[in-house]
Specification:
4 strands, two-stranded antiparallel ribbon, 2% strand, mainly alpha, two-stranded antiparallel sheet
């Protein structure tokens, strides 16, 4: 059926339950955080510009299940290419509904009045993307899709009208423009896309993301604005498969976390989710172990040579060497 987001998910730990709420890392029954979705608040994201810094120095489905971000979300979809429209005319009148209905019919399911997994896969192919490409997540976001692996007729037509696109070539162009816009350092659109992406992996009726889906989605959405700390964060999550889910507040606050946090000055008394506390503690301990191994290696090297070990690139004339 083609590429699917599940193709690059971390393999689930068979001993770990797949449903749960959120807590801390240490125990086998722990989860990310207590389920606080009732109090979820999109305002958790700061209005500050996106500044990705490092810590320290550094979802009818089938095999196509959870392929792209076809989920509910509210966006302020502004028309692209609006400067080319005739003044005083509404954007929706610029593109014929007949043209868009015809395009929709090319991909719609034979039984339902919607584009489902197979149609979406063919659409992606015609657009020149894989279903798990960042641009397809952007397309779902711009169409304001309400369900994964599905574009309804109204979503498809109204979304393309908003994008000012009436053909495959138009969609290609608009997607390229949107991706470039999302790369901007101060992109407020990226924050909207980031919030939208959380809904990407939600199972029907659930309020938290499964851990493997959250990991995959973090990799996908951070195709642009990739924070330096992302690989270490994902490694931490993969090493703690007892974490059974990521709630909305943790997802949203992670963006603030990578913008502002310095592992050397982390304050665990601040209102961060407990998962972040666990991550920082894990990283600090890992760094200490790395440093201890490096020191031991230097000492061993000094013993083997019977003399001082010079600093890398340095001279020993000014006592810059390390003496065992």
């Amino acid at each position: 059926m083609g590429s699917c987001l599940t193709c690059f998910k971390s393999p689930p730990n068979p001993t770990v339950p797949q449903v749960g709420t959120a807590g801390t890392v240490p125990g086998p029954e722990t989860v990310v955080d207590s389920e606080v979705a009732i109090n979820e608040n999109d305002e958790l994201l700061s209005a500050s510009p996106i500044r990705m810094t490092s810590l320290g120095s550094e979802r009818k489905s089938g095999s196509f299940k959870k392929t792209i971000g076809l989920l509910n979300g509210n966006i302020s979809a502004l028309p692209d290419g609006a400067s080319n429209l005739t003044a005083g005319k509404d954007l929706a009148t610029q593109i014929s509904d007949n043209d868009l209905n015809k395009l929709f019919e090319e991909y719609k399911d034979g039984q339902e009045d919607a584009i489902l997994s197979e149609g979406i896969e063919r659409l992606c192919c015609d657009l020149g993307y894989k279903p798990d490409d960042f641009a397809i997540l952007v397309l779902a976001w711009r169409l304001d899709a309400s369900q994964m692996c599905q574009f309804t007729r109204s979503e498809f037509i109204q979304g393309l009208q908003q994008m000012n696109a009436a053909s495959i070539e138009d969609i290609k162009l608009r997607l390229r423009q949107n991706v470039e816009k999302l790369k901007a350092a101060d992109s407020e659109d990226f924050k909207q896309l980031y919030r939208f992406t959380f809904r990407f992996g939600l199972e029907p009726g659930h309020r938290i993301l499964s851990l493997d889906m959250a990991i995959s989605l973090w990799r996908l959405v951070f195709t642009v604005h990739t924070p330096d700390i992302l690989p270490r964060w994902l490694n931490f999550l993969e090493q703690h498969q007892n974490i059974r889910g990521v709630p909305k507040d943790t997802w949203n606050m992670f963006l603030n976390f990578v913008e502002t946090c310095d592992i050397t000055q982390y304050d665990d008394t601040e209102a961060w989710p407990s998962l972040f506390d666990d991550f920082v503690e894990y990283e600090q301990e890992r760094i200490k172990q790395v440093e201890a191994k490096a020191a031991a290696a230097l000492e061993a090297a000094g013993s083997d040579t019977g003399g001082p070990v010079l600093a890398v690139g340095g001279e020993d004339d000014n006592n810059n060497g390390y003496n065992s």
